[in-house]
UniProtKB/TrEMBL annotation, chain A:
Residue numbers of Tryptophylquinone PTMs: W122
Highest taxon above the source species: Bacteria
Domain Methylamine/Aralkylamine dehydrogenase light chain C-terminal as annotated: residue spans: 81-193
Protein family (similarity comment): Belongs to the aromatic amine dehydrogenase light chain family.
Gene Ontology biological process: amine metabolic process
Primary role: Methylamine dehydrogenase carries out the oxidation of methylamine. Electrons are passed from methylamine dehydrogenase to amicyanin.
InterPro entries xrefs: Amine_DH_Ltc, MADH/AADH_L_sf, MADH/AADH_Ltc_C_dom, MeN_DH_Ltc, TAT_signal
SUPFAM superfamilies in alphabetical order: Methylamine dehydrogenase, L chain
Protein name: Methylamine dehydrogenase (amicyanin)
Protein backbone atom coordinates (compact mmCIF):
# COMPACT_ATOMS: atom_id res chain seq x y z
CA UNK A 1 0.00 0.00 0.00
CA UNK A 2 1.22 3.47 -0.82
CA UNK A 3 1.56 5.73 2.18
CA UNK A 4 -0.89 8.12 0.56
CA UNK A 5 -3.50 5.39 0.65
CA UNK A 6 -3.06 4.97 4.38
CA UNK A 7 -5.42 6.97 6.50
CA UNK A 8 -3.53 6.26 9.70
CA UNK A 9 -2.23 9.77 10.37
CA UNK A 10 0.14 8.82 13.20
CA UNK A 11 1.97 6.37 10.99
CA UNK A 12 1.96 8.86 8.13
CA UNK A 13 3.52 11.49 10.31
CA UNK A 14 6.33 9.22 11.30
CA UNK A 15 6.97 8.20 7.77
CA UNK A 16 6.79 11.78 6.55
CA UNK A 17 9.36 12.82 9.11
CA UNK A 18 11.67 10.04 8.01
CA UNK A 19 11.29 10.86 4.34
CA UNK A 20 11.75 14.55 4.87
CA UNK A 21 14.90 13.92 6.80
CA UNK A 22 16.28 11.56 4.20
CA UNK A 23 15.41 13.99 1.44
CA UNK A 24 17.10 16.88 3.14
CA UNK A 25 20.21 14.89 3.96
CA UNK A 26 20.45 13.66 0.38
CA UNK A 27 20.26 17.10 -1.14
CA UNK A 28 22.14 18.94 1.55
CA UNK A 29 25.37 17.23 0.62
CA UNK A 30 25.04 17.99 -3.07
CA UNK A 31 23.37 21.33 -3.53
CA UNK A 32 23.02 24.86 -2.31
CA UNK A 33 20.29 25.73 0.13
CA UNK A 34 18.35 27.55 -2.58
CA UNK A 35 18.70 24.49 -4.80
CA UNK A 36 17.20 22.26 -2.12
CA UNK A 37 14.17 24.51 -1.84
CA UNK A 38 13.75 24.53 -5.62
CA UNK A 39 14.02 20.78 -5.87
CA UNK A 40 11.63 20.22 -3.02
CA UNK A 41 9.18 22.52 -4.73
CA UNK A 42 9.61 20.67 -7.99
CA UNK A 43 9.03 17.32 -6.37
CA UNK A 44 5.99 18.61 -4.53
CA UNK A 45 4.52 20.01 -7.73
CA UNK A 46 5.23 16.86 -9.68
CA UNK A 47 3.77 14.49 -7.14
CA UNK A 48 0.81 16.21 -5.54
CA UNK A 49 -1.01 12.94 -5.07
CA UNK A 50 1.97 11.05 -3.74
CA UNK A 51 3.73 13.41 -1.36
CA UNK A 52 4.93 10.49 0.72
CA UNK A 53 6.45 8.35 -1.98
CA UNK A 54 9.99 7.29 -1.21
CA UNK A 55 12.00 10.14 -2.59
CA UNK A 56 14.78 8.06 -4.03
CA UNK A 57 12.31 6.43 -6.42
CA UNK A 58 10.61 9.65 -7.40
CA UNK A 59 13.95 11.28 -7.96
CA UNK A 60 15.27 8.40 -10.02
CA UNK A 61 12.18 8.34 -12.17
CA UNK A 62 12.20 12.04 -12.88
CA UNK A 63 15.90 12.15 -13.64
CA UNK A 64 15.71 9.24 -16.03
CA UNK A 65 12.40 9.00 -17.82
CA UNK A 66 13.83 6.70 -20.45
CA UNK A 67 14.94 4.22 -17.82
CA UNK A 68 11.48 4.26 -16.28
CA UNK A 69 9.79 3.65 -19.62
CA UNK A 70 12.10 0.75 -20.28
CA UNK A 71 10.87 -0.83 -17.07
CA UNK A 72 7.21 -0.59 -18.05
CA UNK A 73 6.12 -4.10 -18.84
CA UNK A 74 3.08 -3.23 -20.91
CA UNK A 75 2.18 -0.77 -23.68
CA UNK A 76 -0.23 1.13 -21.40
CA UNK A 77 2.39 1.50 -18.70
CA UNK A 78 4.89 3.02 -21.10
CA UNK A 79 2.48 5.83 -21.97
CA UNK A 80 0.75 6.31 -18.63
CA UNK A 81 0.85 9.59 -16.69
CA UNK A 82 0.75 10.17 -12.94
CA UNK A 83 -0.75 13.64 -12.73
CA UNK A 84 -4.36 13.64 -13.81
CA UNK A 85 -6.58 11.11 -12.04
CA UNK A 86 -9.51 12.19 -14.19
CA UNK A 87 -7.96 10.99 -17.45
CA UNK A 88 -8.07 7.49 -18.86
CA UNK A 89 -4.27 7.30 -19.20
CA UNK A 90 -3.71 7.81 -15.47
CA UNK A 91 -1.36 5.00 -14.45
CA UNK A 92 -3.69 3.24 -12.00
CA UNK A 93 -6.36 2.90 -14.63
CA UNK A 94 -4.32 0.44 -16.74
CA UNK A 95 -7.16 -2.09 -16.72
CA UNK A 96 -10.20 -0.06 -15.76
CA UNK A 97 -13.39 -0.52 -17.72
CA UNK A 98 -16.14 1.94 -17.03
CA UNK A 99 -16.74 5.32 -15.46
CA UNK A 100 -14.07 7.03 -13.38
CA UNK A 101 -15.49 7.64 -9.89
CA UNK A 102 -13.06 10.54 -9.62
CA UNK A 103 -15.24 12.33 -12.19
CA UNK A 104 -18.55 11.22 -10.69
CA UNK A 105 -18.33 12.86 -7.29
CA UNK A 106 -15.94 10.31 -5.80
CA UNK A 107 -12.21 9.86 -5.97
CA UNK A 108 -9.58 7.36 -7.08
CA UNK A 109 -10.48 5.18 -4.10
CA UNK A 110 -13.72 6.85 -2.97
CA UNK A 111 -17.27 6.23 -4.03
CA UNK A 112 -19.59 9.13 -4.89
CA UNK A 113 -22.31 9.92 -2.37
CA UNK A 114 -25.40 7.80 -2.81
CA UNK A 115 -23.44 4.72 -3.82
CA UNK A 116 -21.83 1.88 -1.92
CA UNK A 117 -18.36 0.41 -2.45
CA UNK A 118 -18.07 -3.21 -3.41
CA UNK A 119 -16.28 -5.40 -0.87
CA UNK A 120 -15.13 -7.56 -3.78
CA UNK A 121 -13.13 -6.50 -6.75
CA UNK A 122 -10.89 -7.64 -9.49
CA UNK A 123 -7.22 -6.96 -9.41
CA UNK A 124 -4.91 -5.38 -11.91
CA UNK A 125 -1.20 -4.69 -11.91
CA UNK A 126 -0.23 -1.22 -13.10
CA UNK A 127 3.09 0.46 -13.70
CA UNK A 128 3.62 3.82 -12.03
CA UNK A 129 5.90 5.94 -14.21
CA UNK A 130 6.62 8.23 -11.29
CA UNK A 131 8.49 5.75 -9.15
CA UNK A 132 9.12 2.97 -11.65
CA UNK A 133 7.24 0.39 -9.63
CA UNK A 134 4.24 -1.72 -10.44
CA UNK A 135 1.39 -1.83 -7.95
CA UNK A 136 -1.53 -4.14 -7.38
CA UNK A 137 -4.73 -2.21 -7.98
CA UNK A 138 -8.15 -3.25 -6.71
CA UNK A 139 -10.83 -2.02 -9.09
CA UNK A 140 -13.75 -1.65 -6.72
CA UNK A 141 -17.05 -0.66 -8.22
CA UNK A 142 -19.45 1.79 -6.60
CA UNK A 143 -22.98 0.53 -6.76
CA UNK A 144 -26.63 1.39 -6.32
CA UNK A 145 -27.14 4.07 -8.97
CA UNK A 146 -27.13 3.58 -12.73
CA UNK A 147 -24.10 4.40 -14.88
CA UNK A 148 -22.50 7.81 -14.17
CA UNK A 149 -20.94 8.37 -17.62
CA UNK A 150 -18.71 11.42 -17.00
CA UNK A 151 -15.35 10.03 -18.12
CA UNK A 152 -15.62 6.48 -19.41
CA UNK A 153 -12.51 4.41 -20.10
CA UNK A 154 -11.78 1.00 -21.51
CA UNK A 155 -8.25 -0.05 -20.60
CA UNK A 156 -7.31 -3.67 -20.94
CA UNK A 157 -3.81 -4.24 -19.60
CA UNK A 158 -3.86 -7.74 -18.17
CA UNK A 159 -7.63 -8.03 -18.67
CA UNK A 160 -8.50 -11.70 -18.98
CA UNK A 161 -11.82 -13.28 -19.91
CA UNK A 162 -14.52 -13.85 -17.29
CA UNK A 163 -13.38 -17.42 -16.66
CA UNK A 164 -10.57 -15.63 -14.84
CA UNK A 165 -12.94 -13.43 -12.84
CA UNK A 166 -10.31 -11.86 -10.61
CA UNK A 167 -8.69 -10.43 -13.75
CA UNK A 168 -11.78 -9.54 -15.75
CA UNK A 169 -13.13 -6.02 -16.12
CA UNK A 170 -16.55 -6.88 -17.62
CA UNK A 171 -18.08 -8.31 -14.47
CA UNK A 172 -20.26 -5.99 -12.37
CA UNK A 173 -18.36 -6.08 -9.09
CA UNK A 174 -21.28 -5.12 -6.86
CA UNK A 175 -21.69 -8.37 -4.96
CA UNK A 176 -22.66 -7.87 -1.34
CA UNK A 177 -23.00 -4.09 -1.46
CA UNK A 178 -26.49 -4.18 0.02
CA UNK A 179 -27.64 -2.10 -2.93
CA UNK A 180 -29.36 -3.04 -6.16
CA UNK A 181 -25.95 -4.12 -7.48
CA UNK A 182 -26.39 -1.56 -10.21
CA UNK A 183 -23.08 -0.20 -11.47
CA UNK A 184 -22.30 3.49 -11.10
CA UNK A 185 -18.52 3.88 -11.46
CA UNK A 186 -15.13 2.30 -10.75
CA UNK A 187 -12.38 3.18 -8.31
CA UNK A 188 -8.74 2.09 -8.39
CA UNK A 189 -7.22 1.57 -4.95
CA UNK A 190 -3.56 0.67 -4.49
CA UNK A 191 -3.41 -2.47 -2.39
CA UNK A 192 0.24 -3.37 -2.59
CA UNK A 193 3.42 -3.41 -4.57
CA UNK A 194 3.57 -5.89 -7.43
CA UNK A 195 7.24 -5.74 -8.28
CA UNK B 1 -47.72 34.24 -28.09
CA UNK B 2 -51.23 33.90 -26.74
CA UNK B 3 -54.16 34.67 -29.01
CA UNK B 4 -55.34 37.51 -26.73
CA UNK B 5 -52.16 39.44 -27.36
CA UNK B 6 -52.35 39.28 -31.15
CA UNK B 7 -53.36 42.65 -32.66
CA UNK B 8 -56.93 42.44 -34.05
CA UNK B 9 -55.80 43.34 -37.57
CA UNK B 10 -53.23 40.55 -37.68
CA UNK B 11 -55.74 38.10 -36.26
CA UNK B 12 -58.22 38.95 -39.02
CA UNK B 13 -55.55 38.50 -41.66
CA UNK B 14 -54.50 35.12 -40.23
CA UNK B 15 -58.07 33.86 -40.01
CA UNK B 16 -58.71 35.01 -43.55
CA UNK B 17 -55.65 33.11 -44.84
CA UNK B 18 -56.73 30.02 -42.97
CA UNK B 19 -60.17 30.20 -44.49
CA UNK B 20 -58.75 30.49 -47.98
CA UNK B 21 -56.37 27.61 -47.42
CA UNK B 22 -59.18 25.44 -46.11
CA UNK B 23 -61.37 26.23 -49.09
CA UNK B 24 -58.55 25.58 -51.52
CA UNK B 25 -57.86 22.23 -49.88
CA UNK B 26 -61.47 21.19 -50.01
CA UNK B 27 -61.74 22.08 -53.68
CA UNK B 28 -58.61 20.14 -54.61
CA UNK B 29 -59.67 17.02 -52.74
CA UNK B 30 -63.29 17.12 -53.77
CA UNK B 31 -62.82 14.25 -56.18
CA UNK B 32 -61.22 11.98 -53.58
CA UNK B 33 -63.28 9.65 -51.38
CA UNK B 34 -63.80 10.70 -47.81
CA UNK B 35 -61.31 9.01 -45.48
CA UNK B 36 -62.82 6.12 -43.59
CA UNK B 37 -62.59 5.83 -39.84
CA UNK B 38 -59.67 3.66 -38.73
CA UNK B 39 -59.23 0.97 -36.15
CA UNK B 40 -55.97 0.78 -34.21
CA UNK B 41 -54.27 -2.54 -34.63
CA UNK B 42 -50.92 -4.23 -34.04
CA UNK B 43 -48.56 -5.49 -36.72
CA UNK B 44 -47.70 -9.19 -36.84
CA UNK B 45 -44.35 -9.89 -38.44
CA UNK B 46 -44.14 -12.44 -41.24
CA UNK B 47 -41.98 -15.54 -40.65
CA UNK B 48 -38.36 -14.49 -40.34
CA UNK B 49 -36.25 -14.56 -43.50
CA UNK B 50 -32.56 -15.47 -43.21
CA UNK B 51 -32.00 -11.71 -43.17
CA UNK B 52 -34.32 -10.96 -40.26
CA UNK B 53 -31.89 -10.54 -37.40
CA UNK B 54 -31.73 -9.58 -33.75
CA UNK B 55 -29.41 -6.86 -32.54
CA UNK B 56 -28.53 -6.46 -28.87
CA UNK B 57 -28.29 -2.91 -27.54
CA UNK B 58 -26.79 -2.85 -24.04
CA UNK B 59 -27.33 0.93 -23.68
CA UNK B 60 -24.17 1.34 -21.64
CA UNK B 61 -25.09 4.83 -20.48
CA UNK B 62 -28.20 3.52 -18.70
CA UNK B 63 -27.90 -0.24 -18.72
CA UNK B 64 -31.25 -0.96 -17.12
CA UNK B 65 -32.85 0.13 -20.39
CA UNK B 66 -31.21 -2.44 -22.66
CA UNK B 67 -33.18 -3.77 -25.60
CA UNK B 68 -33.21 -6.20 -28.48
CA UNK B 69 -34.06 -4.92 -31.95
CA UNK B 70 -35.65 -7.02 -34.68
CA UNK B 71 -34.19 -5.75 -37.94
CA UNK B 72 -34.94 -6.47 -41.59
CA UNK B 73 -31.40 -6.29 -42.93
CA UNK B 74 -32.64 -6.26 -46.56
CA UNK B 75 -34.48 -2.98 -46.15
CA UNK B 76 -32.52 -1.65 -43.21
CA UNK B 77 -35.71 -1.21 -41.23
CA UNK B 78 -36.47 -1.72 -37.58
CA UNK B 79 -39.38 -4.17 -37.30
CA UNK B 80 -39.85 -4.06 -33.53
CA UNK B 81 -38.07 -4.40 -30.22
CA UNK B 82 -38.32 -5.92 -26.78
CA UNK B 83 -36.73 -4.76 -23.54
CA UNK B 84 -33.64 -6.53 -22.21
CA UNK B 85 -33.08 -4.96 -18.84
CA UNK B 86 -29.73 -4.55 -17.15
CA UNK B 87 -27.03 -6.37 -19.06
CA UNK B 88 -29.64 -8.57 -20.69
CA UNK B 89 -28.87 -11.48 -22.96
CA UNK B 90 -30.86 -12.90 -25.80
CA UNK B 91 -31.17 -15.87 -28.13
CA UNK B 92 -33.34 -16.95 -31.05
CA UNK B 93 -34.60 -20.51 -31.48
CA UNK B 94 -33.29 -22.43 -34.51
CA UNK B 95 -36.71 -22.14 -36.20
CA UNK B 96 -36.67 -18.39 -35.52
CA UNK B 97 -40.09 -18.55 -33.89
CA UNK B 98 -39.21 -17.65 -30.30
CA UNK B 99 -36.94 -15.07 -28.74
CA UNK B 100 -35.53 -15.53 -25.25
CA UNK B 101 -34.32 -12.66 -23.13
CA UNK B 102 -32.50 -13.21 -19.83
CA UNK B 103 -32.63 -10.01 -17.84
CA UNK B 104 -32.52 -8.41 -14.40
CA UNK B 105 -34.82 -5.85 -12.85
CA UNK B 106 -35.31 -4.34 -9.43
CA UNK B 107 -38.80 -3.87 -8.15
CA UNK B 108 -38.40 -0.16 -7.53
CA UNK B 109 -36.18 0.79 -10.42
CA UNK B 110 -32.71 1.06 -8.90
CA UNK B 111 -33.74 -0.56 -5.61
CA UNK B 112 -36.04 -3.12 -4.11
CA UNK B 113 -36.03 -6.86 -4.60
CA UNK B 114 -33.96 -8.12 -7.49
CA UNK B 115 -35.58 -10.26 -10.15
CA UNK B 116 -33.55 -12.35 -12.54
CA UNK B 117 -35.92 -13.28 -15.32
CA UNK B 118 -36.19 -15.33 -18.46
CA UNK B 119 -38.75 -13.87 -20.84
CA UNK B 120 -39.97 -15.77 -23.88
CA UNK B 121 -41.49 -13.90 -26.82
CA UNK B 122 -43.34 -15.03 -29.90
CA UNK B 123 -40.96 -13.83 -32.64
CA UNK B 124 -43.80 -12.65 -34.92
CA UNK B 125 -45.99 -10.82 -32.43
CA UNK B 126 -43.27 -10.01 -29.90
CA UNK B 127 -45.86 -10.88 -27.27
CA UNK B 128 -44.62 -12.31 -24.01
CA UNK B 129 -45.39 -16.03 -23.87
CA UNK B 130 -43.55 -16.87 -20.66
CA UNK B 131 -42.02 -14.80 -17.89
CA UNK B 132 -40.06 -16.97 -15.58
CA UNK B 133 -38.08 -16.15 -12.47
CA UNK B 134 -34.51 -17.44 -12.38
CA UNK B 135 -32.48 -18.23 -9.25
CA UNK B 136 -29.69 -15.93 -10.47
CA UNK B 137 -27.78 -14.76 -13.48
CA UNK B 138 -24.37 -13.24 -14.02
CA UNK B 139 -24.31 -9.44 -14.13
CA UNK B 140 -21.61 -8.74 -16.66
CA UNK B 141 -21.34 -6.70 -19.83
CA UNK B 142 -23.35 -9.03 -22.05
CA UNK B 143 -21.58 -11.61 -24.11
CA UNK B 144 -23.38 -14.09 -26.28
CA UNK B 145 -22.13 -17.00 -24.22
CA UNK B 146 -23.58 -15.87 -20.92
CA UNK B 147 -26.83 -17.30 -22.20
CA UNK B 148 -27.53 -19.90 -24.90
CA UNK B 149 -30.04 -22.41 -26.21
CA UNK B 150 -29.43 -26.04 -26.94
CA UNK B 151 -29.48 -27.29 -30.54
CA UNK B 152 -33.26 -27.62 -30.86
CA UNK B 153 -34.20 -24.74 -28.58
CA UNK B 154 -35.85 -26.94 -25.98
CA UNK B 155 -33.44 -25.89 -23.25
CA UNK B 156 -31.91 -22.63 -22.18
CA UNK B 157 -28.64 -22.35 -20.31
CA UNK B 158 -28.16 -19.32 -18.08
CA UNK B 159 -24.64 -18.67 -16.81
CA UNK B 160 -24.73 -17.32 -13.29
CA UNK B 161 -22.12 -15.97 -10.96
CA UNK B 162 -23.48 -15.35 -7.52
CA UNK B 163 -20.54 -15.24 -7.02
CA UNK B 164 -19.83 -18.98 -7.39
CA UNK B 165 -20.06 -20.19 -10.97
CA UNK B 166 -22.96 -22.28 -12.18
CA UNK B 167 -25.32 -22.80 -15.09
CA UNK B 168 -29.10 -22.83 -14.69
CA UNK B 169 -30.68 -25.37 -17.00
CA UNK B 170 -34.16 -24.31 -18.10
CA UNK B 171 -36.80 -26.54 -19.69
CA UNK B 172 -38.37 -24.26 -22.30
CA UNK B 173 -41.55 -26.33 -22.55
CA UNK B 174 -42.31 -26.52 -18.84
CA UNK B 175 -40.72 -23.09 -18.29
CA UNK B 176 -38.88 -24.34 -15.25
CA UNK B 177 -35.31 -24.45 -14.05
CA UNK B 178 -34.66 -28.17 -13.94
CA UNK B 179 -31.23 -28.06 -12.40
CA UNK B 180 -28.31 -25.92 -11.42
CA UNK B 181 -24.96 -27.25 -12.56
CA UNK B 182 -21.96 -26.04 -10.59
CA UNK B 183 -18.98 -25.33 -12.82
CA UNK B 184 -16.25 -24.42 -10.35
CA UNK B 185 -13.41 -22.47 -11.92
CA UNK B 186 -15.21 -22.25 -15.25
CA UNK B 187 -17.54 -19.82 -16.99
CA UNK B 188 -19.87 -19.31 -19.94
CA UNK B 189 -21.92 -21.78 -21.96
CA UNK B 190 -21.12 -23.30 -25.35
CA UNK B 191 -23.94 -25.79 -26.04
CA UNK B 192 -23.46 -28.94 -28.06
CA UNK B 193 -26.41 -31.07 -29.12
CA UNK B 194 -29.51 -31.07 -27.00
CA UNK B 195 -28.16 -32.25 -23.68
CA UNK B 196 -24.73 -30.85 -23.08
CA UNK B 197 -22.56 -27.77 -22.99
CA UNK B 198 -18.95 -26.86 -22.50
CA UNK B 199 -17.45 -24.02 -20.49
CA UNK B 200 -14.04 -22.38 -20.58
CA UNK B 201 -12.02 -22.71 -17.41
CA UNK B 202 -9.43 -20.69 -15.52
CA UNK B 203 -6.90 -23.52 -15.78
CA UNK B 204 -6.95 -23.44 -19.58
CA UNK B 205 -9.20 -26.45 -19.99
CA UNK B 206 -12.65 -26.92 -21.41
CA UNK B 207 -15.23 -28.43 -19.04
CA UNK B 208 -17.79 -30.67 -20.75
CA UNK B 209 -21.12 -31.10 -19.02
CA UNK B 210 -23.56 -33.84 -20.07
CA UNK B 211 -27.10 -33.73 -18.80
CA UNK B 212 -28.48 -37.25 -18.40
CA UNK B 213 -32.16 -38.01 -18.92
CA UNK B 214 -32.22 -39.11 -15.28
CA UNK B 215 -31.07 -35.69 -14.17
CA UNK B 216 -27.54 -36.85 -13.50
CA UNK B 217 -24.74 -34.58 -14.55
CA UNK B 218 -21.48 -35.80 -16.01
CA UNK B 219 -18.44 -33.57 -16.27
CA UNK B 220 -15.11 -34.09 -18.00
CA UNK B 221 -12.23 -31.72 -18.68
CA UNK B 222 -9.95 -31.56 -21.67
CA UNK B 223 -6.25 -31.31 -21.03
CA UNK B 224 -5.15 -27.68 -20.64
CA UNK B 225 -4.76 -26.25 -24.14
CA UNK B 226 -4.14 -22.56 -23.45
CA UNK B 227 -2.72 -20.29 -20.76
CA UNK B 228 -5.26 -17.60 -19.85
CA UNK B 229 -2.71 -15.05 -18.62
CA UNK B 230 -0.41 -15.56 -21.58
CA UNK B 231 -2.91 -15.93 -24.41
CA UNK B 232 -6.55 -16.13 -23.32
CA UNK B 233 -9.33 -17.49 -25.47
CA UNK B 234 -11.93 -14.95 -26.56
CA UNK B 235 -15.25 -15.63 -24.85
CA UNK B 236 -17.23 -14.88 -27.99
CA UNK B 237 -15.42 -17.39 -30.19
CA UNK B 238 -17.81 -18.85 -32.76
CA UNK B 239 -19.43 -22.16 -31.82
CA UNK B 240 -22.25 -24.26 -33.29
CA UNK B 241 -24.64 -26.14 -31.01
CA UNK B 242 -26.04 -28.34 -33.79
CA UNK B 243 -22.80 -30.27 -34.39
CA UNK B 244 -20.54 -29.12 -31.56
CA UNK B 245 -18.15 -27.27 -33.85
CA UNK B 246 -16.12 -24.54 -32.19
CA UNK B 247 -13.29 -22.28 -33.25
CA UNK B 248 -11.74 -20.96 -30.07
CA UNK B 249 -9.69 -17.90 -30.96
CA UNK B 250 -6.93 -16.63 -28.67
CA UNK B 251 -5.93 -13.02 -28.01
CA UNK B 252 -2.83 -13.43 -30.17
CA UNK B 253 -4.81 -14.95 -33.03
CA UNK B 254 -4.40 -18.71 -32.63
CA UNK B 255 -7.47 -20.68 -33.69
CA UNK B 256 -8.20 -23.95 -31.86
CA UNK B 257 -10.63 -26.05 -33.92
CA UNK B 258 -12.68 -28.04 -31.44
CA UNK B 259 -15.30 -30.71 -31.60
CA UNK B 260 -17.38 -30.25 -28.48
CA UNK B 261 -19.10 -33.15 -26.80
CA UNK B 262 -18.94 -35.34 -23.72
CA UNK B 263 -15.22 -35.54 -24.32
CA UNK B 264 -14.38 -32.51 -26.41
CA UNK B 265 -11.35 -32.77 -28.64
CA UNK B 266 -9.20 -29.74 -29.31
CA UNK B 267 -7.08 -29.83 -32.44
CA UNK B 268 -3.70 -28.29 -33.06
CA UNK B 269 -4.12 -24.51 -33.42
CA UNK B 270 -3.49 -22.46 -36.53
CA UNK B 271 -2.57 -18.79 -36.75
CA UNK B 272 -4.76 -16.06 -38.23
CA UNK B 273 -1.61 -14.13 -39.12
CA UNK B 274 0.10 -17.06 -40.81
CA UNK B 275 -3.10 -17.71 -42.74
CA UNK B 276 -2.73 -14.19 -44.08
CA UNK B 277 0.94 -14.60 -44.99
CA UNK B 278 2.26 -12.87 -41.87
CA UNK B 279 4.35 -14.05 -38.96
CA UNK B 280 2.33 -15.55 -36.09
CA UNK B 281 1.78 -12.97 -33.34
CA UNK B 282 3.51 -13.49 -29.99
CA UNK B 283 1.63 -13.90 -26.69
CA UNK B 284 1.74 -11.59 -23.67
CA UNK B 285 5.42 -12.37 -23.07
CA UNK B 286 6.20 -9.90 -25.88
CA UNK B 287 3.49 -7.34 -25.31
CA UNK B 288 5.00 -4.49 -27.30
CA UNK B 289 5.02 -6.14 -30.70
CA UNK B 290 2.65 -4.37 -33.07
CA UNK B 291 0.93 -6.56 -35.61
CA UNK B 292 -2.53 -7.43 -36.89
CA UNK B 293 -4.61 -8.96 -34.11
CA UNK B 294 -8.19 -10.02 -33.52
CA UNK B 295 -10.20 -7.73 -31.26
CA UNK B 296 -13.51 -6.15 -30.38
CA UNK B 297 -16.60 -7.60 -28.70
CA UNK B 298 -18.37 -10.00 -31.08
CA UNK B 299 -14.99 -10.66 -32.64
CA UNK B 300 -15.91 -13.35 -35.14
CA UNK B 301 -18.78 -14.96 -37.00
CA UNK B 302 -19.06 -18.25 -38.81
CA UNK B 303 -20.86 -18.94 -42.08
CA UNK B 304 -21.45 -22.61 -41.45
CA UNK B 305 -22.26 -23.93 -44.94
CA UNK B 306 -19.16 -22.42 -46.56
CA UNK B 307 -16.82 -23.01 -43.59
CA UNK B 308 -15.92 -19.34 -43.70
CA UNK B 309 -15.04 -17.37 -40.61
CA UNK B 310 -15.22 -13.58 -40.41
CA UNK B 311 -12.80 -12.05 -37.93
CA UNK B 312 -12.42 -8.42 -36.79
CA UNK B 313 -8.76 -7.42 -37.05
CA UNK B 314 -6.82 -4.33 -36.03
CA UNK B 315 -3.16 -3.39 -35.76
CA UNK B 316 -1.93 -3.17 -32.21
CA UNK B 317 0.13 -4.53 -29.35
CA UNK B 318 -0.87 -7.38 -27.06
CA UNK B 319 -3.61 -6.36 -24.58
CA UNK B 320 -5.55 -4.56 -27.33
CA UNK B 321 -8.03 -7.42 -27.49
CA UNK B 322 -11.00 -5.09 -27.06
CA UNK B 323 -9.90 -2.59 -29.71
CA UNK B 324 -12.38 -2.36 -32.52
CA UNK B 325 -11.60 -4.06 -35.81
CA UNK B 326 -10.54 -1.79 -38.66
CA UNK B 327 -10.84 -4.68 -41.12
CA UNK B 328 -12.71 -7.95 -41.44
CA UNK B 329 -10.59 -10.87 -42.55
CA UNK B 330 -12.43 -13.87 -43.96
CA UNK B 331 -10.89 -17.32 -43.49
CA UNK B 332 -11.55 -20.73 -44.93
CA UNK B 333 -11.58 -22.81 -41.76
CA UNK B 334 -10.58 -25.90 -43.72
CA UNK B 335 -7.49 -24.49 -45.44
CA UNK B 336 -6.74 -21.98 -42.63
CA UNK B 337 -6.08 -19.34 -45.28
CA UNK B 338 -7.38 -15.83 -45.47
CA UNK B 339 -9.54 -15.70 -48.58
CA UNK B 340 -10.90 -12.15 -48.44
CA UNK B 341 -10.07 -8.93 -46.64
CA UNK B 342 -12.47 -6.03 -46.11
CA UNK B 343 -11.22 -2.68 -44.81
CA UNK B 344 -14.07 -1.03 -42.87
CA UNK B 345 -15.03 2.62 -43.25
CA UNK B 346 -15.81 2.67 -39.55
CA UNK B 347 -13.99 0.44 -37.05
CA UNK B 348 -16.40 -2.06 -35.54
CA UNK B 349 -16.84 -3.82 -32.21
CA UNK B 350 -18.94 -6.56 -33.79
CA UNK B 351 -19.11 -8.70 -36.90
CA UNK B 352 -22.08 -10.90 -37.74
CA UNK B 353 -23.16 -12.89 -40.80
CA UNK B 354 -26.36 -14.51 -42.00
CA UNK B 355 -26.38 -18.20 -42.86
CA UNK B 356 -27.96 -18.22 -46.36
CA UNK B 357 -26.37 -18.48 -49.82
CA UNK B 358 -26.31 -14.71 -50.21
CA UNK B 359 -25.08 -13.80 -46.78
CA UNK B 360 -25.06 -10.32 -45.35
CA UNK B 361 -22.36 -9.07 -43.02
CA UNK B 362 -23.00 -6.70 -40.12
CA UNK B 363 -20.74 -4.22 -38.39
CA UNK B 364 -21.48 -1.28 -36.09
CA UNK B 365 -20.19 2.00 -34.79
CA UNK B 366 -19.91 1.58 -31.06
CA UNK B 367 -19.89 5.34 -30.46
CA UNK B 368 -23.04 6.48 -32.24
CA UNK B 369 -25.05 3.27 -32.70
CA UNK B 370 -24.90 3.24 -36.52
CA UNK B 371 -25.45 -0.23 -37.93
CA UNK B 372 -23.90 -1.25 -41.24
CA UNK B 373 -25.09 -3.97 -43.62
CA UNK B 374 -22.66 -5.23 -46.27
CA UNK B 375 -22.54 -8.01 -48.83
CA UNK B 376 -20.66 -10.74 -46.99
CA UNK B 377 -19.21 -12.20 -50.17
CA UNK B 378 -17.70 -8.95 -51.46
CA UNK B 379 -17.58 -6.66 -48.43
CA UNK B 380 -19.48 -4.04 -50.42
CA UNK B 381 -21.47 -1.74 -48.10
CA UNK B 382 -25.19 -2.00 -48.89
CA UNK B 383 -26.95 0.17 -46.35
CA UNK B 384 -26.54 2.02 -43.07
CA UNK B 385 -29.09 2.23 -40.30
CA UNK B 386 -28.19 5.54 -38.70
CA UNK B 387 -28.27 5.47 -34.90
CA UNK B 388 -30.18 2.20 -34.71
CA UNK B 389 -29.37 2.16 -31.02
CA UNK B 390 -26.90 3.30 -28.39
CA UNK B 391 -24.47 0.46 -27.61
CA UNK B 392 -24.86 -2.22 -30.26
CA UNK B 393 -22.81 -5.16 -29.08
CA UNK B 394 -23.87 -8.35 -30.85
CA UNK B 395 -26.16 -9.80 -33.47
CA UNK B 396 -28.03 -13.07 -33.88
CA UNK B 397 -29.05 -14.35 -37.32
CA UNK B 398 -31.51 -17.21 -37.84
CA UNK B 399 -29.88 -20.64 -37.83
CA UNK B 400 -26.44 -19.50 -36.75
CA UNK B 401 -26.18 -21.53 -33.55
Amino acid sequence: MLPSENKNSAEQGTLFDRLTESLLRRFAGKTSRRGVVAKLGGVAAAVPLFPLLPVSRANAASSSAAKAVAKATTPFGSKAQAKDANACDYWRYCAIDGNLCSTCGGGVHSCPPGTAPSPTSWIGSCYNPQDGNSYMIAYRDCCGQDSCNEVTCLNTDGDQPSYRPMANNDIIWCFGTGTSEMYNCSTAAVIGKAS
Amino acid sequence: MSLQKVPPSLLRALLGSAAILTMGGTAAKAAEPVLQTEQSDVITLPPYSPHTILVEDAVYTHNKDGRVYVVDADSGKLLGMVQAAYNGNMALTPDAKRIYVAETTWERGNRGARNDLLAEYDASTLKLTSDEKLPARALVTPKKNDFALNADGSRAYVYQMSPSNAVEVVDNTAHKVTQTVEIPGCALVYPWGNSGFSSLCADGTLANVSLGADGKVGMTHTAPFFEPDKDGIFEQSPTVAADGTAYFISYSGMVYPTKMGENSTVEKPWSLQEGAGLKAAPDSSKPFEVTWRPGGWQIAALHKASHQMYVLMHKGTFWTHKDNGTEVWVYDTQTHKRIRRYPLKVASNLVGVTQDEHPLMFTANEDNGDFFVSDALTGKPLRTMKALGTSLIFTVAPGEG
